[in-house]
Amino acid sequence: MLAARPHTHFSSPEDHTAIEPPELRGLGRDSVRLMIATPAGIRHSYFCRLAEHLRAGDVLVVNTSATVPGQLDGTRNAAAVTVHIANRLPDGTRVVELRTAPDAAAPILDGRIGERIGLPAGATVELIAPYPESNSSPTGAGNRLWRGRIDPPQSFSAYLREQARPISYGYLSGSFPISAYQTIFAVHPGSAEMPSAARPFSAELVARLVSRGVIFAPITLHTGLSSQEAGEAPQPEWFDVNETTAQLVNSCRARGGRVIAVGTTSTRAIESAAQPNGMVAAAAGWTDLVISPQRPVRVVDGLITGWHNPEASHLLLVESVAGARLTQRAYDAAVAERYLWHEFGDSCLLLRDG
Protein backbone atom coordinates (compact mmCIF):
# COMPACT_ATOMS: atom_id res chain seq x y z
CA MET A 1 0.00 0.00 0.00
CA LEU A 2 1.09 3.60 -0.52
CA ALA A 3 2.33 5.49 2.51
CA ALA A 4 0.44 8.62 1.41
CA ARG A 5 -2.94 9.37 -0.07
CA PRO A 6 -3.63 12.25 -2.46
CA HIS A 7 -5.10 15.43 -1.01
CA THR A 8 -7.35 15.90 -4.05
CA HIS A 9 -10.95 14.74 -3.53
CA PHE A 10 -13.82 14.82 -5.98
CA SER A 11 -16.96 12.91 -6.85
CA SER A 12 -16.71 9.77 -8.96
CA PRO A 13 -16.58 10.67 -12.68
CA GLU A 14 -18.43 7.55 -13.85
CA ASP A 15 -21.05 9.58 -15.72
CA HIS A 16 -18.25 11.56 -17.43
CA THR A 17 -16.48 8.57 -18.96
CA ALA A 18 -15.36 8.57 -22.59
CA ILE A 19 -16.73 5.23 -23.78
CA GLU A 20 -15.14 5.27 -27.24
CA PRO A 21 -12.37 7.03 -29.20
CA PRO A 22 -13.13 10.64 -30.15
CA GLU A 23 -12.97 9.65 -33.83
CA LEU A 24 -16.16 7.67 -33.28
CA ARG A 25 -17.72 10.79 -31.75
CA GLY A 26 -17.01 12.76 -34.94
CA LEU A 27 -13.87 14.45 -33.59
CA GLY A 28 -10.22 14.46 -34.55
CA ARG A 29 -7.66 13.15 -32.09
CA ASP A 30 -6.57 16.70 -31.29
CA SER A 31 -10.14 18.02 -30.98
CA VAL A 32 -10.70 16.80 -27.42
CA ARG A 33 -11.06 19.46 -24.76
CA LEU A 34 -8.02 20.91 -23.01
CA MET A 35 -8.01 22.62 -19.64
CA ILE A 36 -5.10 24.94 -18.90
CA ALA A 37 -4.57 25.10 -15.14
CA THR A 38 -2.05 27.57 -13.71
CA PRO A 39 -1.80 29.58 -10.48
CA ALA A 40 -3.30 32.48 -12.46
CA GLY A 41 -6.52 30.60 -13.12
CA ILE A 42 -8.36 27.95 -15.12
CA ARG A 43 -8.97 28.28 -18.86
CA HIS A 44 -10.83 25.98 -21.24
CA SER A 45 -9.75 25.28 -24.81
CA TYR A 46 -9.12 22.40 -27.21
CA PHE A 47 -6.04 20.24 -27.57
CA CYS A 48 -5.41 21.41 -31.14
CA ARG A 49 -4.65 24.86 -29.63
CA LEU A 50 -1.97 23.57 -27.27
CA ALA A 51 0.74 25.61 -29.02
CA GLU A 52 -0.91 28.82 -27.84
CA HIS A 53 -0.12 27.88 -24.25
CA LEU A 54 3.53 26.86 -24.65
CA ARG A 55 6.69 28.90 -25.20
CA ALA A 56 9.63 28.61 -27.55
CA GLY A 57 12.23 26.53 -25.76
CA ASP A 58 9.76 24.49 -23.72
CA VAL A 59 10.72 20.81 -23.73
CA LEU A 60 7.97 18.21 -24.05
CA VAL A 61 9.04 14.79 -22.76
CA VAL A 62 7.14 12.16 -24.77
CA ASN A 63 6.89 8.38 -24.44
CA THR A 64 7.79 6.37 -27.57
CA SER A 65 6.41 3.06 -26.25
CA ALA A 66 3.88 1.32 -28.48
CA THR A 67 0.93 -0.65 -27.14
CA VAL A 68 0.82 -4.41 -27.67
CA PRO A 69 -2.36 -6.53 -27.45
CA GLY A 70 -2.67 -8.33 -24.13
CA GLN A 71 -6.30 -9.20 -23.39
CA LEU A 72 -7.36 -12.82 -23.83
CA ASP A 73 -10.45 -14.91 -23.16
CA GLY A 74 -9.61 -17.53 -20.57
CA THR A 75 -11.23 -20.52 -18.90
CA ARG A 76 -11.03 -21.11 -15.17
CA ASN A 77 -12.81 -24.05 -13.56
CA ALA A 78 -14.99 -24.27 -16.70
CA ALA A 79 -16.01 -20.61 -16.28
CA ALA A 80 -15.07 -17.72 -18.55
CA VAL A 81 -12.54 -15.16 -17.31
CA THR A 82 -10.66 -12.30 -18.91
CA VAL A 83 -6.87 -12.55 -18.72
CA HIS A 84 -4.58 -9.53 -19.00
CA ILE A 85 -1.00 -10.24 -20.03
CA ALA A 86 1.38 -7.37 -19.29
CA ASN A 87 5.12 -6.72 -18.90
CA ARG A 88 7.73 -9.35 -19.63
CA LEU A 89 9.87 -9.85 -16.53
CA PRO A 90 13.63 -10.56 -16.55
CA ASP A 91 13.11 -14.30 -15.96
CA GLY A 92 10.77 -14.62 -18.96
CA THR A 93 7.55 -14.75 -16.96
CA ARG A 94 4.81 -12.16 -17.42
CA VAL A 95 2.70 -9.95 -15.20
CA VAL A 96 -0.80 -11.42 -15.29
CA GLU A 97 -4.16 -10.17 -14.05
CA LEU A 98 -7.44 -12.12 -13.90
CA ARG A 99 -10.64 -10.13 -14.37
CA THR A 100 -14.31 -10.89 -14.80
CA ALA A 101 -15.65 -11.86 -18.23
CA PRO A 102 -16.62 -10.65 -20.70
CA ASP A 103 -15.43 -7.03 -20.34
CA ALA A 104 -12.84 -7.05 -17.51
CA ALA A 105 -15.12 -4.96 -15.32
CA ALA A 106 -13.67 -6.17 -11.98
CA PRO A 107 -10.53 -7.92 -10.69
CA ILE A 108 -10.60 -11.55 -9.58
CA LEU A 109 -8.69 -11.80 -6.29
CA ASP A 110 -8.88 -15.49 -5.33
CA GLY A 111 -6.21 -16.91 -7.64
CA ARG A 112 -3.94 -19.62 -6.22
CA ILE A 113 -0.26 -20.39 -6.63
CA GLY A 114 0.09 -23.19 -9.18
CA GLU A 115 -3.34 -22.61 -10.73
CA ARG A 116 -3.50 -22.97 -14.52
CA ILE A 117 -5.85 -20.90 -16.67
CA GLY A 118 -6.80 -22.02 -20.16
CA LEU A 119 -6.15 -19.61 -23.03
CA PRO A 120 -7.12 -19.64 -26.72
CA ALA A 121 -5.45 -22.02 -29.19
CA GLY A 122 -4.46 -24.50 -26.50
CA ALA A 123 -2.21 -22.17 -24.48
CA THR A 124 -2.21 -21.93 -20.69
CA VAL A 125 -0.95 -19.56 -18.03
CA GLU A 126 0.25 -20.82 -14.67
CA LEU A 127 0.12 -18.50 -11.64
CA ILE A 128 3.61 -18.68 -10.13
CA ALA A 129 3.56 -16.10 -7.33
CA PRO A 130 1.90 -12.83 -6.36
CA TYR A 131 3.41 -9.80 -8.07
CA PRO A 132 5.36 -7.98 -6.82
CA GLU A 133 6.38 -10.81 -4.50
CA SER A 134 7.68 -8.36 -1.89
CA ASN A 135 4.23 -6.77 -1.65
CA SER A 136 1.77 -9.64 -1.90
CA SER A 137 -1.93 -8.90 -1.51
CA PRO A 138 -1.55 -5.11 -1.88
CA THR A 139 -5.34 -4.75 -2.00
CA GLY A 140 -5.70 -6.44 1.38
CA ALA A 141 -8.38 -8.67 -0.11
CA GLY A 142 -6.42 -11.06 -2.32
CA ASN A 143 -3.85 -10.92 -5.08
CA ARG A 144 -4.74 -8.82 -8.13
CA LEU A 145 -1.47 -9.27 -10.01
CA TRP A 146 0.54 -12.45 -10.56
CA ARG A 147 3.81 -13.54 -12.04
CA GLY A 148 2.66 -16.03 -14.66
CA ARG A 149 4.35 -18.63 -16.86
CA ILE A 150 2.68 -18.85 -20.25
CA ASP A 151 2.82 -21.86 -22.52
CA PRO A 152 1.72 -20.75 -26.00
CA PRO A 153 1.82 -23.07 -28.99
CA GLN A 154 4.16 -20.71 -30.91
CA SER A 155 6.35 -17.66 -30.35
CA PHE A 156 4.68 -15.51 -27.74
CA SER A 157 4.73 -12.22 -29.66
CA ALA A 158 3.13 -13.92 -32.66
CA TYR A 159 0.62 -15.60 -30.34
CA LEU A 160 -0.49 -12.26 -28.89
CA ARG A 161 -0.75 -10.67 -32.34
CA GLU A 162 -3.02 -13.48 -33.51
CA GLN A 163 -5.07 -14.21 -30.38
CA ALA A 164 -5.12 -11.13 -28.15
CA ARG A 165 -6.88 -7.78 -28.36
CA PRO A 166 -5.95 -4.49 -26.69
CA ILE A 167 -6.48 -4.42 -22.94
CA SER A 168 -9.71 -2.62 -22.10
CA TYR A 169 -12.24 -2.33 -19.28
CA GLY A 170 -15.98 -2.47 -18.76
CA TYR A 171 -16.62 1.25 -19.12
CA LEU A 172 -15.98 1.14 -22.90
CA SER A 173 -18.81 0.67 -25.37
CA GLY A 174 -17.03 -2.03 -27.36
CA SER A 175 -13.75 -3.44 -28.60
CA PHE A 176 -11.51 -1.24 -30.74
CA PRO A 177 -8.52 -2.07 -32.98
CA ILE A 178 -4.95 -1.78 -31.75
CA SER A 179 -4.50 1.36 -33.89
CA ALA A 180 -6.93 3.16 -31.56
CA TYR A 181 -4.47 2.52 -28.72
CA GLN A 182 -1.34 3.92 -30.37
CA THR A 183 -0.02 7.45 -30.01
CA ILE A 184 1.70 9.34 -32.80
CA PHE A 185 5.02 8.79 -30.96
CA ALA A 186 4.67 4.97 -30.72
CA VAL A 187 7.84 3.29 -32.01
CA HIS A 188 8.99 0.66 -29.50
CA PRO A 189 6.44 -2.11 -28.75
CA GLY A 190 6.08 -3.06 -25.10
CA SER A 191 3.25 -1.24 -23.30
CA ALA A 192 0.39 -3.24 -21.83
CA GLU A 193 -1.78 -0.14 -22.07
CA MET A 194 -1.52 3.03 -24.11
CA PRO A 195 0.48 5.97 -22.70
CA SER A 196 -2.76 7.85 -23.24
CA ALA A 197 -1.74 11.41 -22.36
CA ALA A 198 -0.07 11.64 -25.79
CA ARG A 199 -3.04 10.27 -27.73
CA PRO A 200 -4.46 13.70 -28.70
CA PHE A 201 -1.29 14.73 -30.52
CA SER A 202 -1.67 14.81 -34.31
CA ALA A 203 0.97 15.28 -37.00
CA GLU A 204 -0.38 18.74 -37.68
CA LEU A 205 -0.16 19.74 -34.03
CA VAL A 206 3.39 18.42 -33.69
CA ALA A 207 4.41 20.46 -36.75
CA ARG A 208 2.78 23.55 -35.26
CA LEU A 209 4.59 23.04 -31.96
CA VAL A 210 7.96 22.53 -33.67
CA SER A 211 7.47 25.67 -35.76
CA ARG A 212 6.81 27.56 -32.52
CA GLY A 213 10.14 26.39 -31.10
CA VAL A 214 8.87 23.69 -28.74
CA ILE A 215 11.38 20.85 -28.37
CA PHE A 216 10.44 17.15 -28.16
CA ALA A 217 12.56 14.90 -25.93
CA PRO A 218 11.76 11.17 -26.31
CA ILE A 219 11.89 8.58 -23.55
CA THR A 220 10.57 5.03 -23.49
CA LEU A 221 8.58 3.54 -20.64
CA HIS A 222 6.63 0.33 -21.17
CA THR A 223 3.45 0.73 -19.17
CA GLY A 224 2.00 -1.89 -16.90
CA LEU A 225 -1.65 -2.38 -16.03
CA SER A 226 -3.49 0.81 -15.09
CA SER A 227 -6.21 -0.91 -13.09
CA GLN A 228 -4.75 -0.22 -9.65
CA GLU A 229 -7.12 -0.40 -6.72
CA ALA A 230 -7.44 2.74 -4.59
CA GLY A 231 -4.24 3.25 -2.63
CA GLU A 232 -2.25 0.67 -4.60
CA ALA A 233 1.18 1.78 -5.80
CA PRO A 234 2.14 1.59 -9.50
CA GLN A 235 3.99 -1.59 -10.40
CA PRO A 236 7.64 -1.54 -11.59
CA GLU A 237 8.03 -0.62 -15.26
CA TRP A 238 10.92 -0.74 -17.73
CA PHE A 239 12.23 2.61 -18.98
CA ASP A 240 15.00 4.14 -21.08
CA VAL A 241 16.23 7.74 -21.03
CA ASN A 242 19.01 8.24 -23.58
CA GLU A 243 21.90 10.69 -23.48
CA THR A 244 20.36 13.04 -26.06
CA THR A 245 17.18 13.46 -24.03
CA ALA A 246 19.20 13.94 -20.83
CA GLN A 247 21.18 16.75 -22.53
CA LEU A 248 18.01 18.39 -23.89
CA VAL A 249 16.40 18.45 -20.45
CA ASN A 250 19.55 19.68 -18.69
CA SER A 251 20.05 22.42 -21.26
CA CYS A 252 16.45 23.55 -20.89
CA ARG A 253 16.77 23.77 -17.13
CA ALA A 254 20.11 25.60 -17.36
CA ARG A 255 18.57 28.38 -19.41
CA GLY A 256 15.50 28.64 -17.15
CA GLY A 257 13.12 26.88 -19.52
CA ARG A 258 10.23 24.58 -18.67
CA VAL A 259 10.27 20.78 -18.81
CA ILE A 260 6.74 19.54 -19.43
CA ALA A 261 6.07 15.81 -19.25
CA VAL A 262 3.41 14.33 -21.50
CA GLY A 263 1.78 11.92 -19.10
CA THR A 264 2.59 10.23 -15.84
CA THR A 265 4.68 7.65 -17.74
CA SER A 266 7.03 10.30 -19.11
CA THR A 267 7.22 11.89 -15.67
CA ARG A 268 8.14 8.59 -14.03
CA ALA A 269 10.82 7.87 -16.62
CA ILE A 270 12.56 11.25 -16.61
CA GLU A 271 12.36 11.48 -12.82
CA SER A 272 13.85 7.98 -12.56
CA ALA A 273 16.89 9.36 -14.41
CA ALA A 274 17.09 12.52 -12.29
CA GLN A 275 19.86 12.98 -9.75
CA PRO A 276 19.22 14.62 -6.34
CA ASN A 277 20.62 17.90 -7.75
CA GLY A 278 18.06 17.91 -10.57
CA MET A 279 20.48 16.91 -13.31
CA VAL A 280 19.35 14.10 -15.62
CA ALA A 281 21.72 11.31 -16.64
CA ALA A 282 21.12 8.62 -19.24
CA ALA A 283 19.57 5.60 -17.53
CA ALA A 284 17.65 2.42 -18.36
CA GLY A 285 16.17 -0.50 -16.48
CA TRP A 286 13.28 -1.22 -14.15
CA THR A 287 11.90 1.63 -12.06
CA ASP A 288 9.74 1.32 -8.99
CA LEU A 289 9.76 5.07 -8.38
CA VAL A 290 6.55 6.48 -6.94
CA ILE A 291 6.32 10.26 -7.15
CA SER A 292 4.78 11.46 -3.89
CA PRO A 293 5.35 13.92 -1.04
CA GLN A 294 8.11 11.60 0.15
CA ARG A 295 9.85 11.87 -3.24
CA PRO A 296 8.64 14.96 -5.15
CA VAL A 297 9.60 15.77 -8.73
CA ARG A 298 13.10 17.12 -9.32
CA VAL A 299 12.90 17.98 -13.03
CA VAL A 300 9.34 18.37 -14.29
CA ASP A 301 7.74 21.85 -14.27
CA GLY A 302 4.47 21.00 -16.00
CA LEU A 303 2.31 18.08 -17.02
CA ILE A 304 -0.03 17.18 -19.86
CA THR A 305 -2.36 14.47 -18.62
CA GLY A 306 -5.78 12.92 -18.74
CA TRP A 307 -8.04 12.64 -15.72
CA HIS A 308 -7.47 10.08 -12.95
CA ASN A 309 -9.97 8.36 -10.69
CA PRO A 310 -10.48 9.38 -7.06
CA GLU A 311 -7.62 8.22 -4.78
CA ALA A 312 -5.57 6.94 -7.74
CA SER A 313 -1.85 6.86 -7.00
CA HIS A 314 -1.26 8.99 -10.12
CA LEU A 315 -2.88 11.91 -8.28
CA LEU A 316 0.13 12.00 -5.96
CA LEU A 317 2.31 12.56 -9.02
CA VAL A 318 0.00 15.30 -10.35
CA GLU A 319 0.05 17.02 -6.96
CA SER A 320 3.84 16.81 -6.87
CA VAL A 321 4.07 18.65 -10.19
CA ALA A 322 1.26 21.18 -9.84
CA GLY A 323 0.71 21.38 -6.08
CA ALA A 324 -2.28 20.07 -4.18
CA ARG A 325 -4.23 23.34 -4.35
CA LEU A 326 -3.98 23.73 -8.13
CA THR A 327 -4.72 20.04 -8.66
CA GLN A 328 -7.88 20.34 -6.56
CA ARG A 329 -9.00 23.42 -8.50
CA ALA A 330 -8.44 21.62 -11.81
CA TYR A 331 -10.40 18.54 -10.78
CA ASP A 332 -13.25 20.63 -9.36
CA ALA A 333 -13.45 22.46 -12.69
CA ALA A 334 -13.25 19.21 -14.68
CA VAL A 335 -16.18 17.74 -12.76
CA ALA A 336 -18.21 20.95 -13.01
CA GLU A 337 -17.56 21.34 -16.75
CA ARG A 338 -18.13 17.64 -17.46
CA TYR A 339 -14.73 16.84 -18.91
CA LEU A 340 -14.45 13.26 -20.13
CA TRP A 341 -12.35 10.71 -18.21
CA HIS A 342 -10.11 7.78 -19.18
CA GLU A 343 -7.92 7.00 -22.19
CA PHE A 344 -10.24 8.41 -24.86
CA GLY A 345 -11.25 11.47 -22.84
CA ASP A 346 -10.17 15.06 -22.44
CA SER A 347 -6.87 16.56 -21.33
CA CYS A 348 -5.30 19.02 -18.95
CA LEU A 349 -2.14 21.13 -19.09
CA LEU A 350 -0.95 21.91 -15.58
CA LEU A 351 1.76 24.57 -15.26
CA ARG A 352 2.91 25.62 -11.83
CA ASP A 353 4.51 28.85 -13.12
CA GLY A 354 1.59 30.08 -15.23
Explain this structure to me?
The chain contains 6 helices and 17 strands. By secondary structure, the protein is α/β, with parallel strands linked by helices. It folds into 2 domains: 14-67 and 176-351, 3-Layer(aba) Sandwich (QueA-like); 71-163. The strands form 3 sheets. The chain has a 9-stranded mixed β-sheet. A 6-stranded antiparallel β-sheet has the order 5-6-7-10-9-8, with no helix packed on it. A hairpin with a 2-residue loop joins strand 5 and strand 6 (79-88). Helix 5 (314-322) crosses helix 6.
Strand order of the largest sheet: 2-1-17-16-14-3-12-13-15
CATH level 3 topology of the largest domain: QueA-like
Structural classification: alpha/beta
- Into how many domains do the coordinates divide? 2
Question: What is the CATH first-level class name of the largest domain?
Answer: Alpha Beta
